[in-house]
Specification:
The complex is a heterotrimer.
Chain A (H helix, E strand, L loop, with lengths): L6 H11 L4 H5 L19 H13 L7 E2 L13 H6 L2 H4 L11 H18 L3 E2 L6 H16 L3 E5 L4 H14 L2 E5 L17 E7 L10 H10 L3 E6 L18 E5 L15 E5 L11 E6 L5 E6 L2 H4 L15 H38 L5 E2 L8 E5 L4 H10 L2 E2 L2 E2 L10 E5 L6 H21 L1
Helix pairs in contact in A: 6-11, 7-8, 11-13
Chain B lengths: L4 H4 L35 H12 L22 H7 L2 H4 L11 H18 L3 E3 L5 H18 L7 E5 L5 H8 L3 E5 L9 H7 L4 E6 L12 H10 L3 E5 L12 H4 L3 E3 L20 E3 L11 E4 L5 E4 L16 H37 L15 E4 L1 H7 L3 H10 L6 E2 L8 E4 L7 H20 L1 H5 L12 H8 L23
Parallel strand pairs in B: 2-3, 2-4, 4-5, 5-6
Antiparallel strand pairs in B: 1-7, 6-7, 8-9, 10-12, 11-12
Helix pairs in contact in B: 3-11, 5-11, 6-7, 11-14
Chain C lengths: L7 E2 L4 E6 L2 E6 L1 H7 L2 E5 L6 E2 L4 E7 L3 E5 L4 E6 L1 H5 L2 H5 L8 E5 L11 H12 L1
Antiparallel strand pairs in C: 1-2, 2-3, 3-9, 4-6, 5-8, 6-7, 8-9
Classes of the chains: A alpha/beta, B alpha/beta, C alpha+beta.
């Protein structure tokens, strides 16, 4: 147990308090005492608890399989220096840095995160992070709506469907309308020549859910022509290392998820979202912001700033209620970026490009398979399969491989398409084994054609 | 004075992490590529020294006492860290087929069943990432519930005047008008005021129990009844759950919706401000609206993600849960069991009352009842007598290595300090805290100006928030910029 | 607390100086002192028309954000760029250099809805007590 109280302690403390018993202090009114038998297992000693949870971890066979899954959560190398420093107690067990004098470590680290995000996205300002890419998207939409006074957004079908689902959930409650922009046969967004005058933002993800490098520049130009903002979405943050920065492409707001910067896939979380924008929109940035200042002795210091706006309820469209950032996750990402540096990040990104192309080449050579080569891609691409992709994935699973995401999961009519991903961790022999397995599983289907 | 990462690098430094693949131009057209990547290159030693030095400039539970009301800064067990680091969890992809993730889904399902029992809810969603996230989730659920019932006139949300700021913000985000309910002189939410204001427009009443003054809302059952009679829903803000786990349950009090803060009550570390986890619980009639999917178990005992939730509001996060945070909370629960959790709540209440009894002699304690896991005291008298305020006392505590308590909230108490020791602190620490407060108050009477100068010994002293605020509103001073990039000076060159 | 006798006031702590059909508006010394260090001032655009007591802008300090309201209805003819650029002026010179907007009055009789110095003093006393 983690509590220090001996029976003597309790007695002595009750005396100081002047209460006859612990129960006299802690019992709820009699009507509210718990009468039911609680469905909670009896306490386990620590070694048993460790073993019990270890058993649960070992039961996750998929964690040990060769994986070609991406689709918004990416398997990357985590340099051991990253968790070594990020999980130092002084970071892990600290509180939100409201008292600047007691939190310069956390505050400076957030300031460095904010800087990294700006350098990667080309933006002027970034906030201290938000929960994940999907909620970052919601924040971006709120910002655009406040900036333009408009309540409708146009979002590409190439934006991660899980992000779009979250946006739809919030939009329903907040009275924001969503219009979807379709994607063409090459996986690129069909940006209308004319954007409607009531659109607050045009939203494009690049690389998009299909892995394709999408039409951000065109979307931004046309958005601006209609008085709307352009929001750029990044799900695979590593792509920022080599692709043109969102700002360069004309985006006003850059949002996304930085999970790829050293955060484990961890069965979906926690991840870390970022929101960055130009100076013009700084006051609309949600959540926390760290700024640089001085203390009374002239020392450089960091402090949370623009906090007044966090709780102020605006008339037209209420600002976000976000209270926390993802401090430790942002710290992990910051230490990752520091550890790999420009040199390392570039090499890792290029390894992703190389391995994804090796994978694409290997699959394209298989009879009955097709790879969408028209759109250029970063580390993910769509494969056309001779068998229904769901069935193919199930068969590969029996061979101990995670083949990728069947598109039918989100697009019901796309039954013979699979989204596959290769990263710097994908090896040549994995690619060879995978190709061989795909060919073998489809032998009969192909022969029958 | 630690430099910034961007000031200490030099091109070419750093290890080789992968085999060289050659330039990106081999793979993509130049027109798609960025011209440069202006990030620093550092050696691992640079990184080691930098972040180790930063860590020395932080308070943390492992180094300092945090009597922070409403934050529950209890000890974060290292068992939690070990088990959440298992490769079977960290390497598991959220799109892994259910059959290959049985251990993970089982853990989540078991967690969900445990929370449902502990708090008397029909079901929990483990999806929200934090408490405020849980709040907005519940507001979205309430909104959909009423919309489906055709009760479109239900547009108000009742919130006690002692509520946390996120409560009205969450309500406003979904378009609810917020109505404040006053507190009685006894520090409870005023039942008759609530009854008087209730009408057919009420959607949700958001409350926490014990409230933010640390006092148990004795009339809670009558309040939930009154709100239900008016056709509204009751929402429980779980920030103060550390006072009630194993002792009483929000579902039994009549609450329809609730959230928990696993990073408060269930020992998940705060991480400097996240990641947390804010599960949302719902009664039988609201459970269908929970975010989907939910972790479920079929008749054969296999675990799966149940996406078949037609009334669900949708999703509030891309993936179903802050899984690695929940593993930590799960470890905490299974080493304690119901009896251990109950004991923790009792000892949290004991510690708070002990401090309250001793601090009564040092500062004003406005409410005469015993408190639960936290209590408030006021420096208003001290301010009148000496000019020294709650803020100054808080800064003085920092010099003694104690983090400031929560300050200036709830607003019903002027110069408020909200103190929550939690159950993991020992008497010695509590006594030392009282002694420090005592000597600060004494110093305030002798030499107020000296107290207003504190702290003296922290890595930085009081900072100029006005300067940074003014620049920040212009978008300046929020990041490092390479010199000559056009950013106005923000003092970055001063050391 | 500075309280010029020749000005009119609102219960939301704005002051008004009437000069024919033009009203110069700012916030009072009490307001700036309660807010603390002001970091941002958001003013309406010149040309905007406002009803009496409508919300017309925002003043943000280190600890709070406060709405400001038009003491009289009319059209905004001028705003104080100095106050926008250097919000500290509103703290240091609330009645002079820290003025906020000039409004061309739509209806001079609306002045009767304003408070005199004594009336405003009562508001301040009630707030402080």
């Amino acid at each position: 147990m983690y509590t220090p109280h001996t029976p003597e302690d309790i007695r002595a403390m009750l005396d100081v308090i002047g209460a006859p018993s612990l129960e006299s202090l802690t019992d709820p009114p009699s009507g509210l005492k718990i009468k039911a038998q609680l469905d909670v297992a009896p306490a386990l000693p620590e070694s048993d608890a460790y073993a019990r949870i270890r058993e649960m971890a070992d039961e996750n066979a998929a964690s040990r399989m060769v994986s070609f899954l991406g689709a918004g959560a990416y398997r990357h190398y985590q340099p051991p220096a990253v968790p070594y420093f990020a999980f130092r107690s002084e970071f892990l067990t600290s509180y939100t840095p409201y008292q600047a004098e007691a939190s310069q470590g956390s505050l400076q680290a957030i300031f460095e995160w904010q800087t990294y995000i700006c350098l990667l996205t080309g933006m002027d300002v970034s906030n201290a992070s938000v929960y994940d890419g999907s909620t970052a998207l919601v924040e971006g939409v709120i910002m655009a709506s406040q900036a333009t006074g408009r309540r409708r957004v146009a979002i590409s079908a190439g934006v991660n469907p899980l992000y779009r689902r979250v946006l739809a959930t919030y939009a329903e409650g907040m009275g924001v309308e969503i219009t979807e922009l379709s994607v063409d046969g090459d996986g690129r967004t069909n940006v209308p020549a004319q954007i409607d005058a009531d659109i607050a933002a045009v939203i494009v993800q690049s690389p998009n859910f299909f892995g394709v490098i999408d039409e951000m520049k065109t979307a931004a130009e046309r958005a601006h022509a209609a008085g709307a903002l352009a929001i750029h979405v990044t799900a695979e943050a590593l792509s920022l290392a080599v692709l043109k920065a969102p700002r360069e492409l004309g985006a006003d707001i850059a949002i996304g998820d930085a999970q790829s910067f050293g955060l484990p896939i961890g069965y979906g979380g926690p991840y870390v979202g970022f929101v960055a924008t130009t100076k013009e929109h700084v006051r609309r940035l949600p959540g926390r912001l760290v700024g640089q200042t001085h203390d009374v002795d002239g020392r450089q210091a960091y402090v949370l700033t623009l906090q007044g706006r966090e709780q102020h309820i605006r008339r037209e469209l209420a600002s976000s209620n976000i209270c926390t950032n993802q401090a430790l996750c942002a710290l992990i990402a910051t230490i990752y970026l520091a550890t790999v540096g420009r040199k390392g990040l570039t090499a890792i990104a290029c390894a992703n490009l190389a391995n994804a192309r090796a994978l694409a080449d290997a699959i394209a050579a298989l009879p009955g398979f097709g790879v969408a080569r028209h759109g250029s891609f970063f580390n993910e691409f769509v494969v056309r399969t001779p068998l229904p992709a769901k069935e193919l994935a199930a068969r590969l699973e029996k061979r101990g491989m995670l083949a990728g995401l069947p598109l039918q999961t989100f697009y019901p009519d796309r039954t013979h398409e699979l989204l596959v991903c290769a990263t710097e961790l994908t090896t040549q022999s994995e690619i060879a084994d995978f190709s061989r397995a795909l060919a073998e599983e489809c032998k009969h289907a192909v022969a029958a054609v | 004075m630690p430099s910034l990462l961007f000031e200490i690098g030099a091109p070419g430094r750093g290890s080789d992490f992968v085999r060289e693949s050659g330039p990106a131009t081999q793979f993509l057209d130049k027109s798609a590529l960025r011209a440069d990547l202006p990030l620093p290159d550092l050696t691992e030693l640079d990184v080691a020294r930098h972040f180790t030095e930063l860590s020395h400039r932080n308070f943390s539970v492992d180094t300092n006492f945090y009597p922070l009301g409403s934050c529950t800064m209890k000890y974060n067990p290292k068992l939690n860290e070990a088990v959440s680091g298992f490769a079977g969890f960290t390497d598991l992809h959220p799109f892994a087929p259910d059959a290959g993730a049985q251990g993970a889904i089982r853990l989540l399902w078991h967690m969900e069943r445990t929370l449902a029992s502990l708090f008397a809810m029909e079901a929990f969603s483990l999806m929200p990432a934090a408490g405020a996230h849980g709040e907005i989730t519940a507001m979205l659920m309430a909104k959909k519930y009423f919309k489906e019932r055709g009760e479109h006139e239900r547009l108000t949300c009742f919130v006690p005047d002692t509520a946390h700021g996120t409560n009205p913000a969450s309500a406003a985000m979904v378009g609810y008008k917020v109505i404040s309910i006053p507190s009685t002189p006894r520090g409870r939410t005023d039942l008759s005021a609530l009854k008087a204001k209730l009408d057919g427009s009420v959607a949700v009443c958001m409350m926490t129990n014990p409230n933010t003054l640390g006092l148990f809302e004795d009339d809670i059952v009558e309040m939930t009844r009154a709100v239900h009679d008016a056709g509204g829903l009751m929402y429980y803000d779980g920030a103060n759950a550390n006072a009630i786990v194993g002792l009483t349950r929000p579902g039994d009090m009549g609450f329809d919706l609730m959230h928990l803060n696993l990073h408060k009550t269930f020992s998940v570390p705060h991480g400097g401000g996240g990641p947390g986890s804010g599960p949302v619980g719902a009664s039988t009639r609201l459970a269908p609206y929970l975010p989907a999917p939910l972790a479920a178990r079929d008749e054969s005992g296999a675990y799966f993600w149940d996406h078949d939730r037609p009334k669900s509001i949708g999703a509030v996060r891309a993936f179903p849960a802050h899984f690695l945070a929940i593993v930590r909370a799960y470890a905490y629960i299974i080493v304690h069991g119901a009896e251990g959790l109950r004991r923790n709540s009792q000892l949290a209440v004991l510690n708070a009352n002990y401090l309250r009894a001793k601090i009564k002699d040092v500062l004003t304690v406005p409410y005469s009842d015993y408190c639960r896991h936290e209590f408030v005291c006021s420096a208003e008298e001290l301010k009148k007598e000496t000019g020294v305020r709650a803020l100054d006392l808080a800064k003085g505590l920092l010099d003694a290595g104690v983090h400031a308590p929560t300050m200036y909230w709830p607003h019903v108490v002027p110069e408020c300090l909200m103190i929550e020791p939690t159950e993991t602190e020992n008497r010695h620490t509590l006594d030392a805290f009282v002694a420090t407060l005592h000597s600060l108050v004494k110093l305030a009477h002798e030499d107020p100006a000296a107290v207003q100068q504190l702290p003296l010994h922290t890595p930085v002293r009081r900072v100029d928030e006005a300067q940074v605020g003014r620049l920040a509103n212009k978008g300046i001073g929020l990041r490092w910029s390479p010199s000559g990039s056009g950013s106005e000076s923000n003092g970055a060159d001063k050391t | 607390m500075d309280l010029p006798l020749d000005l009119l006031y609102t219960k939301e702590h704005e002051w008004v100086k009437l000069d024919g059909t033009t009203a110069t508006v700012g916030i009072t010394d009490y307001a700036q002192s309660s807010l603390g260090d002001i970091v941002y001032v958001e003013l309406p655009k010149p040309g905007a028309s406002l009803e009496q007591f409508a919300q017309m802008g925002v003043i943000e300090s280190v600890k709070a954000v406060s709405d400001i309201y038009a003491p009289v209805g009319g059209t905004i003819v001028e705003i104080n760029g100095d106050a926008e650029n250097d919000p500290a002026k509103v703290n240091s010179e609330p009645y002079t250099g820290g003025w906020l907007v000039k409004i061309k009055l739509a209806d001079a009789s609306q002045a009767k809805n304003l408070l005199d110095a004594a009336g405003y003093q009562k508001v301040v006393d009630a707030a402080a007590g």
